Every structure is written in C-alpha cells, then in structure tokens.
Amino acid sequence: MKKLEGKIALVTGAAMGLGLADAKMLAEEGARVLLTDIDEDRVRKEAEAIGENARSIKLDVSNPEDWKLAIKKVEEFFGGLDILVNNAGIVIVADPENCTLEDFRKTNSIMNEGVFLGMQIALPLLKKSSNGSIINMCSTATHLGYPPFFSYSAAKGAVRSMTKSMAIHCQMTGLPIRCNSIHAGGIETPMVQNVQGRGDESPIEIPLNGVLPSDSLGRPEDVARMVVFLASDDARFLTGAEFLVDNGLVARPADIVQ
C-alpha cells in the first residue's frame, strides 16, 4: 500500500520547483492533490500531466478570498483535506540597507501572511481529518544570516515561529493536526537559478542517487521525500519540529567551508 493512500492534499506554489515536486510525489504515494498557483495556465497543465488524482486552481496566497475558494474547491473535488503544504514563495534580492518597504511588504504578504491565511482558513476542514498535517516550507535562512535576502529571511523566520505556535495550539485544543516546518538549503529550482543569474535554461545536473558533496545543490525530490514523510502516518509523533534538508549546511563550521 502506498504511504498516502486515501489522503487529500493541497499544495501552494505548485506550478514549478519545490511545489511541483511535492505535488508529484504526494500523488505518486497515493494522495489526491489540488495544485494551486498564481500562474493558472501552468499549474493546470502540470495537474493534467499528473493525472486523475490531481486538480488545479488559481490561488494568490496573499488573498483571503482566493484561499476560501481553494478550500471550498478541494472539498468539492475530493471530499476533504488531510495535508496542507504551504510552499509558495518569492525572493527579492536586497540587503537591509537597500530593501524597500514595498519589497518587504510584498515578500511578507506572500510567505508570511500567505501561510497564516492558509493555516487559518484550512483549519476547519483539516479538523475533520483523522491525522491532519500542515507542512510549512521554510529555509536555512531562518538559521543563518543572508543579508542579500533580508525580506525573505524575515518572512521565513515568521513562518518558523508560526509553525510551532500552530502545532501547540492544535495539541492544546485537541485537534488531530500536526504542524512542522522544512528548512531547505540550496535546491536546483527556477527560483535558485534566477537568483544565481542562470535562468532555467541552464540547469545543473545533480545525481539522483548517492551522497552529494558539500558544495552541491539538492534536487527538488530531496525535499519532496521529507514532505511525503511528514504527511504520512509514520510521522504521527512529530509536531512543532523543524527539519533541515540542507546537506549539513547549518551544521558545518564556517572555517572549514571550501
């Protein structure tokens, strides 16, 4: 039996990158998945490619009305919700001195307020699950200083804290919902390609198997495997936790980095 047979998932930012990898692997493990993204055409094509266990809808995560519609649609399509993956995000490159208030607010409206809205609006439906799982995509930027990604780091730091608060809220109120965060290091996605100035036309070839060297980026599947685990009943004793998927980046002392 597949790990997520009978489960229903909603993934944000699922048109590409980590969100798409998450949606694909959740479906491969038996879940029915609603892919959401602000890019309506692209996310629809990706859902169609996954097959009958996937549907799609446009979702601007900073818009509460969009969230209400998405939660309504996942119930209409599949009958409920067990797994919420808050993945949607952007990166604006600007250090503390050059980050504008507009940049800061835009970043936080998507990755901070968007996660807040998703968790709050999805909660009534998740309450009906026997083992609900909220998975919030964070970053090693919550553990390390990245001046060029100032607003991004601020938003992810808020998500790290909200994750723990939501986890304990669910425990204290007797809700059958776990909430954890994933803190990924550098992953070969369109977002990282753009930040590095490569564009998605110049992907780095990363092996599918085996241990990777310290300077390697990861593959989106490396994160998606953790998403599947945290979504499954195997992770029933895990809540309020943070999982570093970073090839040892945070653990590695700076003076030995080559």
TrEMBL record:
Residue runs in coiled coils: none
Source organism per UniProt: PS1 clade bacterium
Similarity comment text for this entry: Belongs to the short-chain dehydrogenases/reductases (SDR) family.
Database matches in Pfam families: adh_short_C2
Molecular function GO terms recorded: oxidoreductase activity
PANTHER family: DIHYDROANTICAPSIN 7-DEHYDROGENASE (PTHR43477:SF1)
Cross-referenced InterPro entries: NAD(P)-bd_dom_sf, Sc_DH/Rdtase_CS, SDR_DHRS6-like, SDR_fam
Keywords: Oxidoreductase
Protein name: SDR family NAD(P)-dependent oxidoreductase
Lineage, top ranks: Bacteria, Pseudomonadati, Pseudomonadota, Alphaproteobacteria, PS1 clade
PROSITE patterns in the record: ADH_SHORT (PS00061)
Gene3D superfamilies tied to this protein: NAD(P)-binding Rossmann-like Domain
SUPFAM superfamilies: NAD(P)-binding Rossmann-fold domains
